Structure formats: structure tokens, C-alpha cells
Amino acid sequence: MKTPNFRQTLLESLRVMSFIIPVYMIWIGLGLVANTESPIVVVLSGSMEPAFYRGDLLFLTNPLGARYQTGDIVVYKIMGEKFPIVHRILETHDVSLPQLRSGKPINYPSSNDQLLLTKGDNNPADDIELYRGLEWLERKHVVGKVRGFLPYVGYVTIAMNDFPRLKYALFGVLGLMTLLQRE
Q1: Is residue 19 part of a domain?
Q2: Taking a C-beta distance cutoff of 8 angstroms, is the pair 155, 57 a contact?
Q3: CA distance 139 to 24
């Protein structure tokens, strides 16, 4: 068996990159069109059952200026938390500058904004405990509103996170196949 030389290895690496770069560009393009940093997320827990189950792949949008309504399912992320949370909106409150200057100091937005209270469909209580000291979610915490989903497609991602060795094995096998592939 002939060992691959530097030129072959470089060529195979470029082939792999020619697959990865367009996928990354599509991801960035989807994010720009949907106005969200993460246009696709995977449900990691059972807190939204029966609406969504662990492993469901969710498609998100976050239109500028759109108001969220009670009953909308949103994905939000609190600073310092590792993963975003998928829950339903229980309450919304529109806040404007005059309401904020009511005499007592409030730690909320200084311009027109919307405050949200969320809850998982399968949870007994609202999410205030998850907000890390905030009383309400602000629009800036919302990653996006769920617009569609594919059931169970995200289990691959969950498996790779739950079993890191599986991820390394998969990448190792793909890399080995790339290096050993003959034209």
C-alpha cells in the first residue's frame, strides 16, 4: 500500500474544506435571513413535551420589530448559561420610557421593549428561577421564535454531546476515510 504524500494529503484536506465552508456559509446566510445567531436548535430536554420532544430540530426566526404573543414558543438564552432554553410565553408586557420613570428604580430597558414570562409545557412552574435574578426576559434574551421542526433529527447532536468519544471516533473515521480514499 502506498502511503499518501504531502500533496495528496493537502488535496484531500482541501476537498474536506470544500464541503465544510459551503455548509458554514449556508448557516451564516440562514442566520442573516432569520435575524438570529442560531437559526436551528436541538431540543435537549423534555420540558416542552408533548409539543416538542428531546431530539427535535427546531427552525427559528427573529423578525425585527415583531411583537411576541402569549402562546408563542421561543428559544432564549440568559448570559452565563451554556445552552438556550425552549419554552412557551405565558405573559407579555410592553414597556415604554414613561412607564419606567414611575418613581421607583426598575432595572429594565430604557426604550420601547417587550418583557416576557415563559414556562415549559411539561414544567409545574414558570421560568423566573431560570432568569438568573431577572424578573422578566427582555427581547435581547430571545434567540428566536419557533417556526417549524423536524422530529428526532437532532438525536445525532445529543449523542455526540452525551458521548464525546463517539464524536471523536466519528471525526477520526471520516478523516481516515478521506486520507485513504483513492480516486
Answers
A1: no
A2: no
A3: 27
Quote the DSSP letter at residue 116: E
Which has the closest alpha carbon to 174: 8, 2, 20? 20
> Domain limits at 49?
35-175
User: Total domain count for the chain?
Assistant: 1
For the record, the C-alpha cell of 76 comes out as 432564549
Catalytic residue numbers, as ranges: 47, 87, 127
Counting other chains too, the contacts that 66-71 makes at CB distance below 8 Å and 24 or more residues apart are 66/145, 67/92, 67/94, 67/114, 68/92, 68/114, 68/116, 68/139, 68/142, 68/145
Contact present, 117 and 177 (Cβ < 8 Å): no
- Give which of 56, 54, 39, 38 is closest to 122, Cα–Cα: 54
Domain at 66, CATH number: 2.10.109.10
Q: How would you write the pLDDT of the chain (183 residues) with one tens digit per residue?
A: 556 678 877 887 788 788 789 989 999 999 999 999 999 999 999 999 999 999 999 999 998 888 899 999 999 999 888 899 999 999 999 876 455 444 454 555 444 588 999 999 999 999 999 998 888 999 889 999 999 999 999 988 888 888 889 888 888 887 777 667 655
